[in-house]
Write a structure and sequence with these properties.
- By secondary structure, the chain is α/β, with parallel strands linked by helices.
- The chain is 53% helix and 8% strand.
- The protein has 27 helices and 13 strands.
- The strands form three sheets. A five-stranded parallel sheet has the order 2-3-4-1-5.
- Strand 8, helix 17 and strand 9 form a beta-alpha-beta unit.
- The N and C termini lie far apart (101 Å).
- 36% of the residues are buried.
Length: 779
Amino acid sequence: MTQPIYTALESFPDHPPSGSRASGDRRQRAVEADDVPTSAMGALELETYRKCWLASSRFRRHNTEVAAERERERAIGLAEKEARAAIEKAMRTGKGFPRSASRSGHSSSSRSSIEDVDDDQDESLRRISDAERYPPNGGLVAARLLFSRIFDRRPALLDALRSGAPAILIDVGDALMLDRVAMVWRSILFESTTRFMDLARDPVKRREDLDALYLVVKEPPKSTSKISLDTTALSMLAFALPLIAISPLARSHLPEAVNAAATDRIDFPPLDATTIVRTIRIVTGKTCPQAIADGTLTHTSIADLDIAVRFDRTPQECLAELRRLNVAKIAKKKSRELTLSQLHGLGEAREWAEEAISDIEAWKRGEISWSAVPSGVALNGPAGCGKTTFAAVFAASAGLNFVSATLAKWQSSGEAHLGHLLRAMRQDFEAARARAPSCLFIDEIDSFPDRAGVTHSHRDYVIEVVNALLAEIDGIAGREGVVIMGASNDIGRCDPALLRAGRLERIVQIGLPDIPELEKMFRVRLGADLVDEDILPIAELAAGMTGADVERVVKDARRAARRDGGRSLVFDDLQKALVEDDDRPHELRWRTCVHEAAHILVDVIHFGPQNVFARVAKMQGRFGMSARRNNGYSSGTTEEYRKRLEVILAGRTAEQLICGSASHGAGGVPGSDLDSATGLACAMVGSFGLAGPTPLTYLGPARDAGTFLAFAEIRTAVNHELSEAARSCALLLKENRSVLEAIARRLAAHGRIDGAQVATLLAEARRDGLPSGRGGAEP
């Protein structure tokens, strides 16, 4: 049996024998004309380069000859047309034939001469292969060069192909590149006479009829075909023949037997500047006048080479087109399409992602089993904090196909009948299996509530939907290469079975970003704009915002600059996009300053000056806010919770003390001071066991504390806690009235104050021994 070896140059047509001096000189000139140092290429890549260059050269020559032939035919046709017109004119005038007609013999002779040339051309064309009559394809050329380079870097693997039976598994993640590699690999590694067997399609043959085995898989096989393919692979591995298996990811696409037998695993390399330059040289026949700087064509794909690199263009035109395509991709790239390193304010979510990606890469290398990979996670955080963005970025960073779904999407399929919903759900899970390795992201998983708490008339419908989801998750849990990720604004509403081990077993909290994280988020979205500006004041103003808010602010600022004559973005654009025009009357603004001053003053007195601030800028419909960025660990005592109630009620209490009466600013909407204080007091009375006449009675979880108000005794106990907190807060504010008003004046002047500044004012007042009475008038 003939052992398979990579094809020698002499096996290709139109090459003189290897011993021919003319052959060697011509091959050397072909490469030297490229200005590519042959030392930079391995033997196999150099051989591939020469063949591609020669084929491209023949096509260009052939194309030139065809164009010249067409031009000659056009000229002859035009001359014959003019001659006929002259003859017709002479016959109409009766003047006889024109003198040019006497040269008709010459035209006939010329025609005969052209036909002779055409015969010669036909003879020449017969020596050009059919493949060389088609223009060179930039993507195919690049695939050939990259594939050859893989084996040049592994010379022992080439030797094994000649004399042994290695099982080589090559992962090609890019689908277009995989198509091209599948077309070219055999002609690079093996002789044209090598006898192959395709494990997926060909019937089993005798060993004496085979030289090598191969398997090219582009989609994960279905369970039935996977069993059959695994059986075939097991039997054929006993033939002790070289095996080449190419797929997007061997672990999820190839039979277990092939994975187990692998002697070498190779990740196909990405496109690089050197390959692009050589591809342009081969296709155009001209040397690139300049090197490509690293990063210039970062987003160039194999499809871009097909589009931009053409035989009728100069190298400069090819590069210009590649750069245009690259710039267009960057311009289309959404600000949400970030890398994992550019995601900020995600806390433990980013740590989980980095660990999961490391495990997934180890699984791809065959170092760990899929059961060791964290493949089920639930993200919990407020709306707009970046859960969906995080999921998409994680999938891209991990090299996973992204499949997104929601209950609303499933319900909107068909006619919203239960059967249609379940079918749509099943289709998304099947898509995740088929596209493995993949990440199935299910948003708003709180739409699948705790079945035990469903009491309405559609209870059976809800239970069946939740049961179906759990069954699908269980069915995919054992499938290698599929990560399931859920997201919720309130994870406590989810059915507990959804969050148990083996399903979405890890709950990752994503909170609001702090000021340093907000500054980083602004920097990422601003890109090259405002690089020399200090944007910390912007981040401080944005405290309490989410990643979605940051993205909106930057987008609004860019829009303002664009509409103002298309100028560059400036700091004021960002500030105006963040802070609304404040048209409040002076009295109302002063009341807001007093309100927020009280919040931060009581907060600093009770919990310290770290990580707390207050501002009175008009933003997102709010006139002001006071917030602590990180509450840290809580002792959970009655005393601590009563202090928290004082902080919440401080604003309303200060309005009564300084302005003479309270306004509606402390209540009226969910999330207001009164709403927060009432909810906390309800939890103290009915859930935490910290207050009320029956503290040992548990009425429910803290998140449902508002429902406790249905009981009269709870309402009485809650009102008592709130009244006592308001009374204690009033005493504290009276004792520190001078500091309260000093804080309010600073807020009126500067719009912001932090805990450290408040602590300084407190220290100064205590050092100076100021009386607790009025420390200053309204500004």
